[in-house]
Amino acid sequence: MTTAITLLDGGMGQELIRRSSAAKPHPLWSLQVMMDEPELVANVHRDFCLAGARVICLNTYSVTRHRLQMGSALTDLPELLKHAGDLARAGIQASVVGGGPCGVSCALNIRRADPSKKVTLYFSGDQPLVGYHPTAQTYYDKILTDAGVTLQSNDRAIVPSVTPHSGVINFESGASAEAEAILWTVGKRKPHSQYLPTELLDTEGFVKTQSTLEVEGSDTIFAIGDVASTDPDRSSARNWAYGILVNNIKRKAAGKPVNQFYKPPPNRWGSIVGPQADGLTLHQHTGKRVRLSRWLVDNILLPTVVQRMIYRGVDRSAN
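RE: above sequence
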């Protein structure tokens, strides 16, 4: 049996005293440093994260009413608590590795949720969203830049067998970057196919599927969806291949040869960053862009289409 160990940050007060330019400790101790040299507090949080800390303790040890009575100018307790929280967030710079839809969505939504946080997106191509229409790529290149996300292109990260939550990101070029929080959105998909006979699976564990949706080597087995290796993105379900599936099964049951074939669209499509304040933007494989209003998303799409139609079969009572 293994026990998970969580590392908290270390002694904030003593570390601030060590780094502070003040000649001697102030009666308000770390609180005074937070007011006079706030960048020190953010940097200490950052260094604790780089050392492997998973939990951040705010610099509020001396933010008490008793301590505040020692300094006549410092009396706003709620404002000081907010300031401590802001510095903790500022000290954690998020790095997202991977320029696919998950990486783009994480980078943009983190930055929009907290504009004070520095967010960097690393990807190996000229632009993020490889596989999408060039119009969508250019669109999100600008959206990310306008939101303040730093884009680092044309360098592929070396993905370790165990991906760290913080520390150093190494790249194939030999470059490296430090990050206090790392999100690895590098497409390490693992199909739930362990229960299937190995002769049906390819080297990555997906079901070997022909364009007719027949499983290779079988006359009676069909496959569709995320587990079927119809194309690199395994996109048969989202591209309405169920019509082909039904047609070919009917013909097979009637003793007739199958006559419909799945061909994926030339580009990926769909919503990339999810609902935003101005609605939900959908990108078609042709490059056309459609936006649904936030009211439509909140009142029709999510409660009706998503919850009642798409996920109606999910047993919500199950843990």
